[in-house]
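Lab channel / #folding
Pinned by the channel admin:
"Please post every new chain as: sequence first, then the structure tokens as a reply. Keep commentary short and put observations after the output so the thread stays searchable."

First post following the new format, from NK:
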Amino acid sequence: MPRQVVAFTTDKRFVRRARELRTIEAMVRLYCRGHDHPQRKPLCTDCAELFEYATRRLERCVFGDAKPTCANCTVHCYSAQMREQIRVVMQWAGPRMLLRHPILSIFHVLYGRRPAPTLPGKPPKRAE
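Reply from TO:
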């Protein structure tokens, strides 16, 4: 039976979001490893919970793949507590990303310079 060759194509719509997810994961791992959190296999329970929350927020982003970096975003989808936690993680891991993950950090800086898209306005109400 001959093997069927399947052409590999990359869906360009989801490349940015996948890269952003890898960036967030790298930052959380650096933070967890750098702070010697207990019981960490790949991540301790607090960092794993933060990463799962960030993953859910990224998957449900209203901008889709046109998502800006969180610092430039017009919609803040994180709760106040989680926003503070991710801010602390990014502030600590950001400078260290250039040495550990230079490509991800360069793309993150470049995406941060792009203007944030605007949300479509609500349709006007019809007068009946």
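NK: The chain has one domain: 12-113.
TO: also worth noting, DSSP finds four helices and no strands in the chain.
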